[in-house]
């Protein structure tokens, strides 16, 4: 890393992030991959705060957080990734307020976004008819299989 990169990673915000990450390892029980994702998200967040001229945890406002989240969405971040960013940011600010590193939590009135799930794919009517017609109903096993498939279909 060059001097500029090291300088960018110093200061009260980054010290607070280091404290948060150390505490998260021991206290929250987050999976290692989740913690790594939070760390990356929060570094991006701190860079955004620094671009806004915010250098201390106590100077972060609700509007500064919203500006960052809006910028993420404008940059094309998926709703699921944006929700993860918000989760990391909320945990970070809750920690800062609980540890008295910041006087308050600017995210305390934020609602959690609802992420939509894709609907499952379904069989076409033609495919379903083929499956139901597949058992050989002239044998006892085929009758059994046909009955099982009909039961599954009706359930």
What is the mean predicted local confidence, pLDDT?
86
Sheet bearing the most strands, described? none
Q: What structural class should be given to the helix and strand makeup?
A: mainly alpha
For the CA atoms, what is the radius of gyration?
A: 26 Å
Percentage of helical residues?
Answer: 55-70%
Number of helices: 7
Number of strands: 0
Spell out the helices and strands N to C: HHHHHHH
Distance between the termini: 61 Å
- The 3D shape can be described as elongated
Contiguous low-pLDDT stretches (5 residues minimum) are 1-8
How much β-strand is present in the residues?
Answer: under 5%
Could you explain how this protein is built, in words?
- The protein is mainly α and 155 residues long.
- It has seven helices and no strands.
- The chain has helices at 3-8, 12-27, 32-51, 62-74, 79-98, 125-133, 140-154.
Concise description?
Helix content is 64%, strand content 0%. Helix 2 runs antiparallel to helix 3 and helix 4 runs antiparallel to helix 5.
Notable traits:
single chain, 155 residues, mainly alpha, 64% helix, disordered N terminus
Layout: helices, strands, pairs:
Layout: H1 3-8, H2 12-27, H3 32-51, H4 62-74, H5 79-98, H6 125-133, H7 140-154
Helix pairs in contact: 2-3, 3-5, 4-5
């Amino acid at each position: 890393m060059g001097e500029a990169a090291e300088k960018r990673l110093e200061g009260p915000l980054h010290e607070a992030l280091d404290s948060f990450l150390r505490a998260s390892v021991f206290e929250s029980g987050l999976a290692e991959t989740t913690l790594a994702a939070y760390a990356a998200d929060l570094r991006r967040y701190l860079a955004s705060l620094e671009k806004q001229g915010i250098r201390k945890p106590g100077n972060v406002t609700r509007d500064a957080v919203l500006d960052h989240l809006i910028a993420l969405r404008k940059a094309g971040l998926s709703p699921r990734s944006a929700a993860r960013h918000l989760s990391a940011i909320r945990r970070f600010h809750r920690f800062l307020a609980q540890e008295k590193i910041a006087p308050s939590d600017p995210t305390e009135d934020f609602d959690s976004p609802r992420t939509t799930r894709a609907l499952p794919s379904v069989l076409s009517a033609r495919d379903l008819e083929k499956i139901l017609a597949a058992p050989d109903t002239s044998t006892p096993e085929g009758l059994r299989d046909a009955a099982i498939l009909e039961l599954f279909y009706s359930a």
